[in-house]
What we know:
Elements: H1 2-10, E1 15-16, H2 19-22, E2 40-41, H3 46-58, E3 63-66, E4 85-88, E5 95-99, E6 104-108, H4 113-122, E7 125-126, H5 139-144, H6 152-155, E8 162-168, E9 174-177, H7 191-194, E10 203-210, E11 212-213, E12 218-225, H8 228-242, E13 246-253, H9 254-263, E14 277-284, H10 289-301, E15 307-310, H11 314-325, H12 327-334, E16 341-343, H13 349-363, E17 368-374, E18 379-385, H14 393-406, H15 425-428, H16 431-444
Parallel strand pairs: 2-4, 3-4
Antiparallel strand pairs: 1-2, 5-6, 6-10, 7-11, 8-9, 8-10, 12-14, 12-15, 13-14, 13-17, 16-18, 17-18
Bound molecules: flavin-adenine dinucleotide (FAD), (2R)-2-hydroxypentanedioic acid (2HG) and zinc ion.
Amino acid sequence: MLIEQLKDIVGPKGWTTDPDDLEPRLTDWRGAVHGATPIVISPANTAEVAAVIRTCADANVAIVPQGGNTGMCAGAVPDASGTQVILSLARMNAIRSVDAVNFSMEVEAGCILENIQNAATAVDRHFALSLSAEGSCQIGGNLSTNAGGINVVRYGTARAQVLGLEAVMADGTIVSSLRSLRKDTAGYDLKQLFIGSEGTLGIITAATLKLNPLPGVISTALVAIESPGDAVGLLAYLRTELADAIEAFELVSSYVFGLVAKHIPDSALPFDQQAPWYALLDVAIGGDEERLESALMGAAEEGLLSDAVIAKNSAEADRLWRMRHSIAEAERSERKAQKHDVSVPLSRMEEFLQRGESLLSDLVPDAQLVAFGHVGDGNLHYNVALPDGSEDGARVTRALYDLVDELGGSFSAEHGVGFLKRQYLPIYRNEGEIALMRTLKRALDPKNILNPGKVI
Ligand code: FAD
Ligand code: 2HG
Ligand code: ZN
């Protein structure tokens, strides 16, 4: 009965129960969780989303919103009950308008991130969110997870790219705040409720995004360094020399680039000698490579780096970035690692890595650290590949999160909490914070039908 009602709302193009279509939507990208669903519903517009939610609410049936299903915490897959309906935003993929004068654009939630970037570039504007999954993740998923990626060091996370938002509440009410203003102090900032709430407080259906001027010619460098402490020192040095021109600053361990070389074609490092760590960086200084070279030489004199190459052209730069963007895939091809997407204040990064290393060697001497990430934001992917058959995963994770917490960091920097990390939220957020999160969830979704079992 419910299923027939849902089919009627969206019409023949808006649903599927074909097992072949359902299958890829039931498992997360990491292959960590496999669920079940009776149907995938793909509305064509916001009114249909609202009608679907009202109908599910009347029947007390849970809804799992799904974007590109590239999330790292299994937030977009249903549980195993076989009752939860998947709501896909894939058909809502229109770029509604681009306002080059106002540096803004209005898009539907199902737009693929890369298409948004390209639409901005087409009018000489820049949309600043960029991550390795940009060819398949959707802006609705990016906003729901408050995604980070490689350009946060200059432009902030997904949250900072949003001027306005449209969302559908758990009772089907449409809340439209699609204004394109930089300044607006009229009442509560409602869009922030939905950004980063991972589909548990409402379904994002559209957004007004902030655009930037094009950054101009980007210079890319790969730098060999001895320690993560030197990477933090190098970042500070370059920030002083090049002001806010640093667009990206990523740290990758030698082991991780080795994994990429093993699994991804044409991925050898451009150095004769191996270094323990590498920083990959983009700077927007109008192609003034002498300036970059002199900054890097200054850093070398301070002992912050041992070698560096500056990409000679965009093909070389693309090759270096392809190596960085292939890390998650290379890690997955090697073996499943225990993922820790953590952040600490930059001033504690070196201490975190040193103490993390000794903690790991005490707990599981045979574990392999897979460390890389957005060190410019204090965000490291401190993944740990455990020996086959090891049962130490939970203990390792808990000890690492305790360390992160002690250093004033977060156990969830950019991927969200989803299903896989929800048991940690009450441990690492204080009572007052958890109580307010529960109050909000109860108030906005009293029947607990929006992505239940995720986040909180
Ligand atoms: P999904 O995975 O489909 O969903 C994610 C969450 O959002 C789920 O809880 C889902 O229920 C909810 N959701 C989806 N759409 C909506 C909506 N319209 N309304 C309400 N809730 C919704 N993440 C980073 O932050 N930085 C990175 O650098 C990064 N790199 C990645 C690299 C690779 C190779 C991969 C596979 C993933 C990476 N990720 C990264 C993780 C992932 O791409 C991001 O979390 C992304 O924002 C998820 O978008 P999605 O459309 O795939 O969302
Ligand atoms: C990245 O930065 C992603 O490449 C994925 O956030 C991180 O695979 C991971 O652990
Ligand atoms: Zn990341």
